[in-house]
């Protein structure tokens, strides 16, 4: 088992004083004569005594860890490019700050609330990241009830009495508008949207942005299919759209995996991308750059989002003032999968 | 801040006894009269007293959390399909067991060792997963020195005195042999391997498997390029191979992202896959099924690997006997990206 670290008892034995006195001296409490205190600190240093985070966390009620509860079907987690990048960004801040990340993956909203309660009751975390905000999100009230510092990714829809939760937001919907403007500018008239789940705020924001941009271009946003973000959903939606009577000439997807799957379906059907069908993604994943044709997409920056959210949460826990943070908006990056609309036959 | 949970002091005050007696009663230690114990338990229950995991972990030196230290460039983490799936598998076991996962992402081996030391010194974890085993892996000696229960993914090369670390292994190299056999059987003679890092055991095992299968088929395994698993590395290696004088007719990649990037490079160069070039991946990712042509690949099962490793580690921490676990071997799945070798011109 682990080699024993010097304890307060060891320091006491070496100093020839009581453990209580050592504890008082090390914790800088009153009632210890200055010379005694000096001598105890010198012996503690000599023995290599260090405060245990676990013991310290018990006394100051801090766990030096932040929590991330991810509520998604494991099947989606494994193909969702957002979380690994977001976590890489979070770790960039936590590691130097001596903080750990406690991760919990649950499959539904009931388990999610229970998970937050348990993490707090067990004193495991000092704060939490709230991702994938939903309409009427129960987590906002819960973290307030639990007194748990928290930061949201994106702004909640309404925050009745929830003014103490800072948001780290990225204007991702603007990227969808850019994509639609780009396609409309290339002459596309039948543009479809393969959307994320409407119960998630970012899913419905992106859909609203699609509607707004379409209407502004004088087009009807009537080709919209809601999905659960899975690549297989993207493939299915694409097959459905391509089989329909008013086949779109362009499809705006709510994430890269679905767009790549859509590209595969189109090519399998013998269509040329972008000659017959233009395709845009959302995420700016690595692999999107390397498929053929390279994916036009909307580049968010989940690594940066993770770092920014971690910094806000650490400041909040330290008791420093925090405010909402606006990251640079997601931006549309044109690559090779989007081009001029095919001439009408 | 958090609403106060009833403490031992509250129970003591209500029962009119000392805190020490309450603690003895709640911890079921001898020296408490049965009636007194009953009364204290009843009051504790009435007040809703619950043992704090943090306090409990301090007294029994357990943290009820397992650690995963990932040592990779953040850039690779974000595109590596292994970890999200592995973590989903781990969480499947931890969540019902009331355990948390503490995650740490570091960028080099020096930080890695420091991270293990700190997680143990801070009493944050009861056990650790050792992934991406390397030659002369310093972590094996370290976890023994620290007395930290650990499980390795795959079998270490040699385990001098390291008999107490169980391994959860999957014969992944066998999948590479199957892929080479498949390609050689289709008439391919110039088969290249875009390999993972040789310093990682699984990287060199897969390369050895490639050599073995090639030699068995009477072919020279001389077209091998080592990479760092990144999609961009896969693209670069493919461009290099296709530009060379003895252009391969088939390429066996060490992961799916590199194979998908290689597919993109080949198609960009105007090659037909699999008519001119056959391509196989490794992972069995979701997206590999949806690209065009669908990727022939070697299906490992990281979710299952995660669950199995978590179960072994939990048993080990509970003091139950453990032994090495052999998962079903990774298997080659033929899809559409591999086919007969082109006729020699």
Automatic annotation (TrEMBL), chains A, B:
Keywords: DNA-binding, Transcription, Transcription regulation. The keyword Transmembrane does not apply. Residues 6-60 form the HTH lacI-type domain. Coiled coil: none annotated. Residues 325-345 are annotated as: Disordered. GO terms for molecular function: DNA-binding transcription factor activity; transcription cis-regulatory region binding. Pfam families: LacI, Peripla_BP_3. CDD domains: HTH_LacI (cd01392), PBP1_LacI_sugar_binding-like (cd06267). SMART domains: HTH_LACI. This is LacI family transcriptional regulator. It comes from Phytoactinopolyspora halotolerans.
